[in-house]
Structures are given as C-alpha cells and as structure tokens.
C-alpha cells in the first residue's frame, strides 16, 4: 500500500535507479541478483528512516540527483559523501531530515566515492518484478532509470518513524586504494604462475568503463597457460573474469549469470560494497586469502 504522494524527479543525474536487496535465486533463468551495489549504505539509509532493510532506495551515480516530495516525509542521504540541500539550503548528510510537501531534496555530486543512496520513510514503491523493485541494467527488469519529471510512489512509513544515529561508522569513506581479497579458482589453472603472481602484485586502477555490471581495471595483462574460451558456465557474484585482453573484470550486482571467459578467482560478497564506491582512477590491489574466508559466499578453492 502506498501513501498519498511520492517523489517527482527534478534532476535525474548521470544514472539514478531504484534499488533494494535484489532478486536472488533466479540465476538459472539468466537473471542476476541486481540490487544496491553498496548494500551497507542502502541498509543504513533504511535504518535511519525506520524502514526494513528490504525497502527500496534511490541509488545515484557520481552526479547525484534532486527530487520533489509530494507529501510530508522523512528522508536521508547516505553512501558517497556529497552536499545535501533542501530547497537550496544546506542539510546534513547521513542524518534524517523532515521534508514538507513540495520540498526539493538534492544530493549533489559525490565528493568521495561514486554512489549515494536516498532513503524515504516507507520506501520507494515501484512495481515488483520477480519479488524485487530493483532496476537491473543487464536484463532490463525493474523500473527504468530515473528521468526528469518521472514520479515514483512512496510506501506508508513505519509508525516508529526514523531515528537519529549519532555515528555513520558502519559505512566507511572510500580510501585512495581499493584492497580486494580474492580466493583463486575455479579456472586459475588457465593462467601461468607468472599470471597468478601478477594478479596479486600488479598495479591496477579502476577503469572509467566500469558500471553496475562490472568493475573494469587498467593495468598489466595476466599471462594465460591456455588460450580460447570455455563452454559457457555459471558466473557468481564477485567473480574475476579475464577477457582476451588479459585485464581483470570484477562482476558486480548486474553481472551476467553465465560466461565463457575464465574466472581466475572470486572476491567475497562482503568486499563488494567498497568496490561499488571506487571511482575511476582508484588504485586496486588484489590480495590472496585462504579458501575458508570466502567459501561461505563464493565456494572457491584454495590458492594453488
């Protein structure tokens, strides 16, 4: 059930989408999980306005967005730090604010990181597809990315309402280097010993071609022991796939569920929120971990 009102898009920004916890369990149908790339920031936004973590938020990309609320509500901006204004006047980032009907909430360009999250009491009530309101850019499921003038309904807020949280420590401001733990496999045997060393000793940077599907890297190519492609096989969230040019691609929430390029390793899901906030040019370092620390999320074998 929706409350009277909703939000009207005043400035859509570079890419603003509706996101929730995604739609897991449909990979066998070719549908990725999707959902918020920075799940920590998404969950925090919902916590601050009194929603369950499953409620939908708006995920912005680099340039933020602005929306007009059509009825009184409580809102918050989390994720990538950015200037926040209400009707042009400064408002706090990371703290809930009460908005009158007609007020314009704007999340400006990210000062650190990539993606900010706008949470509203009651959550964004876009139509569910396969149980989720998330926008999936790969399959095209879910609501379209926001465009200027688009209106989205909001749900009825919880009777408890939002609550102030004195510290936003659960979400960390991105640092100058993205360190990603990786467990080797399942196709690390397609790479030479030198290629495996290069993965964890090479200097990589986040490519500007990165998106919700994958974090692409720039840096040294990984030497292959075997050429060609595999028969198409399943691709888990966090897989590090290596296309023919040899540079690692880290699969994020909208990744394809199958692929034929070898996966040299898998990054555990807990590390992917940080990857979602790595801006183009950010230094990337892969560090090997024991299989037990990633098996719960990826099930990859130990380094060989």
Automatic annotation (TrEMBL):
<keyword id="KW-0378">Hydrolase</keyword>
<feature type="domain" description="Carboxyltransferase">
    <location>
        <begin position="28"/>
        <end position="298"/>
    </location>
</feature>
<dbReference type="GO" id="GO:0005524">
    <property type="term" value="F:ATP binding"/>
</dbReference>
<keyword id="KW-0547">Nucleotide-binding</keyword>
<dbReference type="GO" id="GO:0016787">
    <property type="term" value="F:hydrolase activity"/>
</dbReference>
<dbReference type="InterPro" id="IPR029000">
    <property type="entry name" value="Cyclophilin-like_dom_sf"/>
</dbReference>
<dbReference type="InterPro" id="IPR003778">
    <property type="entry name" value="CT_A_B"/>
</dbReference>
<protein>
    <submittedName>
        <fullName>Biotin-dependent carboxylase uncharacterized domain-containing protein</fullName>
    </submittedName>
</protein>
<dbReference type="Pfam" id="PF02626">
    <property type="entry name" value="CT_A_B"/>
</dbReference>
<keyword id="KW-0067">ATP-binding</keyword>
<dbReference type="InterPro" id="IPR052708">
    <property type="entry name" value="PxpC"/>
</dbReference>
């Amino acid at each position: 059930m929706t409350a009277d009102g909703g939000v009207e898009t005043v400035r859509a920004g570079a890419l603003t989408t509706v996101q929730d916890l995604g739609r897991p369990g449909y990979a066998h149908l070719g549908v990725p999980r999707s959902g918020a790339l920075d799940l920590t920031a998404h969950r925090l936004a919902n916590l601050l306005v009194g929603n369950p973590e499953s409620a939908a938020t708006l995920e912005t990309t680099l340039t933020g967005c602005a929306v007009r609320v059509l009825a009184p509500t409580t809102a918050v901006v989390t994720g990538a730090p950015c200037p926040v204004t209400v009707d042009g006047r400064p408002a706090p980032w990371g703290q809930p604010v009460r908005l009158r009907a007609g007020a314009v909430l704007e999340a400006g360009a990210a000062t650190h990181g990539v993606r900010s999250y706008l949470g509203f009491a009651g959550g964004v009530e876009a139509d569910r597809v396969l149980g989720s309101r998330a926008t999936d850019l790969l399959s095209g499921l879910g609501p379209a990315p926001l465009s200027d003038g688009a209106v989205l309904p909001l749900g009825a807020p919880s009777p408890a309402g939002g609550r102030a949280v004195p510290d936003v420590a659960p979400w960390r401001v991105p640092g100058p280097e993205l360190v990603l733990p990786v467990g080797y496999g399942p196709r690390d045997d397609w790479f030479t010993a030198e290629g495996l060393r290069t993965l964890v000793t090479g200097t990589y940077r986040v490519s500007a071609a990165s998106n919700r599907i994958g974090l692409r890297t720039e840096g040294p190519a990984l030497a292959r022991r075997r050429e060609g492609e595999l028969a198409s096989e399943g691709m888990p969230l966090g897989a590090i796939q290596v296309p023919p040019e040899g540079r690692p691609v880290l699969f994020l929430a909208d990744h394809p569920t199958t692929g034929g390029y070898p996966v040299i390793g898998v990054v555990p899901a807990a590390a992917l929120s940080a990857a979602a906030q790595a801006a183009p040019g950010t230094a990337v370092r892969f560090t090997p971990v024991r299989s037990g620390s990633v098996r719960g999320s990826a099930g990859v074998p130990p380094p060989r």
